[in-house]
Amino acid sequence: MSPTPLSARALETLLGEWRGGSSAYVGLSERIRLLLLDGRLASHTRLPAERELGERLGVSRTTVTAAYRALRGAGYLQSVRGSGSVVALPGALAPAAEPITGILDFSQASMPALPGLTDAAVAAAGDLSRHLGGSGFDPVGIPELREALAERYRVRGLPTSADEIMVTLGAQHAIALLARVLISRGDRVLIEMPTYPHAYEALRAAGGRLVPVSVAAADEAGLASGTAPGWDEPALLQALQRSNPVLGYLMPDFQNPTGQSMPIDQRERVIAAAAASGTVLLVDETIAEFDIDRAGEYPPFAAHAEGAREAGAVVSIGSVGKSVWGGIRIGWIRADPALIRRLVGARSSNDLGTPLLEQLLVTRLLPEMPQILAHRAQQLRAGRDHLERRLAERFPSWSVPHPDGGITAWVNLGQPVSSQLALAARNHGLLVTAGPRFGIDGAFERFLRLPFSPNPEQMDRAVDALGLAWESLARHPLPETGFLADVV
Length: 488
Ligand SMILES: Cc1ncc(COP(=O)(O)O)c(C=O)c1O
Fold this sequence. Notes:
The protein is an alpha/beta fold. The protein has three domains: 4-93, Orthogonal Bundle (Arc Repressor Mutant, subunit A), CATH 1.10.10; 104-114 and 383-475, Alpha-Beta Complex (Aspartate Aminotransferase, domain 1); 117-367, Aspartate Aminotransferase, domain 2, CATH 3.40.640.10. 41% of the residues lie in helices and 14% in strands. The chain has 17 helices and 17 strands. It has an eight-stranded mixed beta sheet with strand order 6-13-12-11-10-7-8-9, sandwiched between helices. α7 crosses α13 (337-347) and α15 (369-394) runs parallel beside α17 (456-475). The longest helix has 26 residues, at 369-394. The chain is globular and about 65 Å long. The two termini are 26 Å apart. Pyridoxal-5'-phosphate (PLP) is lined by residues 109, 170-172, 196, 251, 256, 284, 286-287, 319, 321, 326, 331. In the C-terminal section; belongs to the class-I pyridoxal-phosphate-dependent aminotransferase family.
């Protein structure tokens, strides 16, 4: 595989605030290592030449040379004749082919599997015989599941028919497929900032030029500084009017990672502006139904798109990846039938359809969704309250929001040390994702996203690990922790 070059300017943006602490070369190598570990820097990327990077960052070439040497010594950098310095994860840290054991993984906002899932799966296997006479390749979804999904939208207040539904391999597949079909290279694509990283990766991979609009969390530190929580509406409307993005990727309910929900009247204004600018709003409702104690009624976002012109402006996606389990790879797209046909036509170059067995399982589970969601709300309420309590006891200086739904808390650390903390936490057996992973320009160093879906015992262990990591930061502002080849 030939390495992908990265310019000094692009690396500078990714590095964000990397200075501070003991020595510049340690700071630089640690930050590059973190970028690689949490996926912001892809394996097989060619780093800029030492002199060029030194000039860009305003440090001596010797500093860059020392940083590269440290990375090379630890197995994160290879110098290939003719190809320069190429970063790569050492074998032990490469994306795991096997689940990682012995380490607490708080880097994902996932939910434990729904109780009783095995029994439901066994029952679904019994339904398979009805389909065995066909080819088994299903690019659009079995009729009974499309109808059950349409019925869920109707029950929630959005008239929908089965021909407006396409079943996908989870919501991520839906995002990537829509991006591939709707975006041409160089098109502008509006995103929230911070946002869900795998979404902006897919939008960018399809050639989109990202136009970020900020969403502020409702933490005390932010409120004290006068920042209104939620979407920066003037910036959002202006971006729609001036940039004419082809697509806008939004999570209006329990936004990942901030936990914010967009007010109903704001939804109406955003939809009207999108319809006027010809922008398709890709509304990700993967976590929209994880309501813990939010006040008010929130129908699906597309219910606010009333006129014929506006209706086409909203494409919704959903998934059972969290309500049921991440291991059941079923998601869906709700769009007008003409777009569904285009998406189905475009699908086969990438995959040949959704597994029937999993579709049958989800068809059985959908009528039980109200009970499933009530069970999840109970779990998440207990988790949120436990995490809040533990963080308040252990880290009184952190500003922890009180999300009324979703699965994560976007914690303000009060200092721009999220990347350092995430690195140090690895040394104590905890994987967490640093704030900058949720931005595109190295911002959010003050924030850490913590899921409250794990059980109390896991959360206690995570808070203990964060405590040790936080203490190590206080001792060494940039931890000289050595490299972690044996952590996983
Ligand atoms: C906001 C959001 N969208 C999409 C996804 C991907 O969902 P799926 O597992 O259905 O692909 C996730 C998963 O974490 C998510 O948080």
